[in-house]
Design goal:
By secondary structure, the protein is an alpha+beta fold. The chain is about 50% helix and about 15% strand. The protein has three domains: about 5-130, Acyl-CoA dehydrogenase/oxidase, N-terminal domain (Butyryl-Coa Dehydrogenase, subunit A, domain 1); about 135-245, Beta Barrel (Butyryl-CoA Dehydrogenase, subunit A, domain 2), CATH 2.40.110.10; about 250-395, Butyryl-CoA Dehydrogenase, subunit A, domain 3 (Up-down Bundle), CATH 1.20.140. Strands 1, 2, 3, 4, 5, 6, 7 and 8 form an eight-stranded mixed beta sheet that branches. Helix 5 crosses helix 8 (about 250-290), helix 9 runs antiparallel to helix 10 (about 330-355) and helix 10 (about 330-355) runs antiparallel to helix 11 (about 365-375). The N and C termini lie far apart (about 55 Å).
Amino acid sequence: MLEMPTPSSATDPEPCLYSQAELEWQRKARAFAEAIPVPEIVACDRENTFRRDLFEAACRQGFGALPFPDTYGGAGGSYVSFCLVNEEFGRRCVPIMSSLGVHILCQEPVYRFGTEEQKRKYLVPSSSGKYLAAFGLTEPGAGSDTAALKTTARLAGDRYILNGTKVFITSGGAADYFIVMARLEGAGPDDDPNGARSITAFIVERGFPGFAIGQKFDLLGMRGYATCEIVFNDCRVPKENILGQPGAGRKVALSSLAKGRVTIAAQCVGWAQGALDGAVRHLKQAHDAGLVDDNLNGLAYLLGELGILVESARALTLAAARAIDRGESDSLLAAMAKVQASDAAMRVASEAISIVGPDGANPDLLLERIFRDAKAGPIYEGTNQIQRLLIARQLLK
């Protein structure tokens, strides 16, 4: 008789690979995710609405500042723990998954480069869910190339004046503050033709004069995250809201994105696992109903290949997260994990829908949602094409 793993056993991490504290975070995340009824998950996607209540509930559970010390309201957990949380949220398509990842991404530069006053002002309320953060980097003509930014900042007395537009900002329509990269006018040296060394990071609050929410995006996937444009029209930012040193914005952005790519990898592992779970459930039900034989009507080979893809992506993501926890954040390993996991998510989601057949289009099964969401994986926080080039450059050094 054919025996197949249950969805829960398929997603349980090996105890020998994780500490008890990390496993506890994984269990908490699974319980949180599974407590959200599927119709609510489907509604957020269909109506493209952000669930602030779920975000605040997640923060009350400690997810909102998990990898930061309790000095600033964090839970003092490992980055591996945060990846396990993201995997569980991705597997279940929790509506706040991406917003939570970006929220942590934004706290990272404040924690690393911010003044003590900035840490107290922004990190503590971020941990509780009082503040939601968003990352303002991507522009209409500048995505993976951070040196191509057009948003400008000029010093005028005790304030900086920002002008420009950012696009595809996750949580942008709901966020309370933004980590924004802008080019500081008059700051680039003569030997810096692209002006990369003039890029500066700012903390911009939603209520600052000259700040506005622009177009709201109705996307194929990744819906329900209040994704939008943010516009700076002579936006006045207090001088004390510069983050790090003038001209150090590219360093601030890239150091944060290196960790962010590991978070993306964990989310993608979750998508892949969720899709694999759906295919396994379908085949087991079909077998029990006598519709497929013990060889799964020839699908056993494909199912085995998909299982290998999921586990290989999980292993590479774990290695990248462990490096972060050792204080050895590795941009090469992070890029590899992001590419492997996002490619795996796309492949597994696509094949799972083919295995399930017409029922794969049923929103209640979440497979088509995973398929649409997973398409973002190879694109955002550095396209996989760019990541492969960066990997090659590292290998050729």
